[in-house]
Amino acid sequence: TLLFFQEKTLGGQHWVITAGPTREAIDPVRYISNHSSGKMGYAIAQAAVNAGANVTIISGPVSISAPAGCKVINVESAEQMHQAAMKQSDNADVFIACAAVADYRAADIAPQKMKKSSQDMSISLVRNPDIVKDVAAKANKPFVVGFAAETQDVETYALGKLTSKKLDMICANDVSIATQGFNANQNALTVFDKDSSTEIPLADKAMVATQLVKLIAEKRS
Ligand code: CTP
Ligand code: CA
């Protein structure tokens, strides 16, 4: 195990982490989702537990098991994740948005399985709430950390999100590189706050998570 911490470094702190994909129903048997595995969010949760934090994971559907000692709130849709995040962030010290939230959901969920016809079809989509932005806009907000998975212009887009969502920190990763993309076991991050950037080089997600937790702990103190 990775022990960069005195066991009680984060003792008494509540860290809330969103992880995994969301699933947006189209009808009773179909949904829109993405390839997020939840591995990065769960690795951050493990690292925060190792450092002594009380950790709540708000998780979309994933196939991995949660680290021992975490409270897990399982959700499916972005709206459910939003509701849980607004509630859990009330008494949080740190909020980390690691989930790959679907940006859109079906305007209407068909009550019965949709049947095909000879015609092509289209589904109308409406915007989901921006979870991390709404948490960062709260009056009594925690230290808020976002992620930006990008395939091009990584720094520009990440800094844009840091500003527009009023985040304290954003972790940019270039998912055009297969070894550090969605579902990979490794990751590499460039972490930005308003006046600095820190490179966390390519390594197993457990190692990257430990360094990130350490960095957050330093920056918020
Ligand atoms: N995020 C969120 N709620 C959403 C969409 C995104 O909380 N509805 C969070 C993600 O968890 C991540 C950050 O916002 O921490 C950036 O997500 P990303 O998808 O990269 O950015 P978007 O603002 O959705 O922009 P786009 O997908 O167009 O790049
Ligand atoms: Ca998005």
UniProtKB/TrEMBL annotation:
* Record has Zinc-finger as a keyword: no
Chain residues that bind CTP: D103, K113, P129, D130, I131, V132, F147, K161, K165
Question: What biological process terms from GO does the record include?
Answer: coenzyme A biosynthetic process; pantothenate catabolic process
Q: Give all residue intervals belonging to the DNA/pantothenate metabolism flavoprotein C-terminal domain.
A: 11-218
| UniProt GO cellular component terms | phosphopantothenoylcysteine decarboxylase complex
- Phosphopantothenate--cysteine ligase: annotated span: 15-221
Record-listed E.C. numbers: 4.1.1.36, 6.3.2.5
Per UniProt, the cofactor note for this protein states: Binds 1 FMN per subunit.
Q: Which UniProt keywords apply?
A: Decarboxylase, Flavoprotein, FMN, Ligase, Lyase, Magnesium, Metal-binding, Multifunctional enzyme
Q: Which reaction does it catalyse?
A: (R)-4'-phosphopantothenate + L-cysteine + CTP = N-[(R)-4-phosphopantothenoyl]-L-cysteine + CMP + diphosphate + H(+); N-[(R)-4-phosphopantothenoyl]-L-cysteine + H(+) = (R)-4'-phosphopantetheine + CO2
- Tell me the route in metabolism or biology where this protein functions: Cofactor biosynthesis; coenzyme A biosynthesis; CoA from (R)-pantothenate: step 3/5; Cofactor biosynthesis; coenzyme A biosynthesis; CoA from (R)-pantothenate: step 2/5
Cofactor(s) required, per the database record: Mg(2+); FMN
The GO molecular function terms of this record are: FMN binding; metal ion binding; phosphopantothenate--cysteine ligase activity; phosphopantothenoylcysteine decarboxylase activity
Q: What does this protein do?
A: Catalyzes two steps in the biosynthesis of coenzyme A. In the first step cysteine is conjugated to 4'-phosphopantothenate to form 4-phosphopantothenoylcysteine, in the latter compound is decarboxylated to form 4'-phosphopantotheine.
What protein family does this chain belong to? In the N-terminal section; belongs to the HFCD (homo-oligomeric flavin containing Cys decarboxylase) superfamily.
Name under which the protein is recorded: Coenzyme A biosynthesis bifunctional protein CoaBC
What is this organism's lineage? Bacteria, Pseudomonadati, Pseudomonadota, Gammaproteobacteria, Alteromonadales
Q: Which residues of the full protein are shown?
A: 177 to 397 of 397
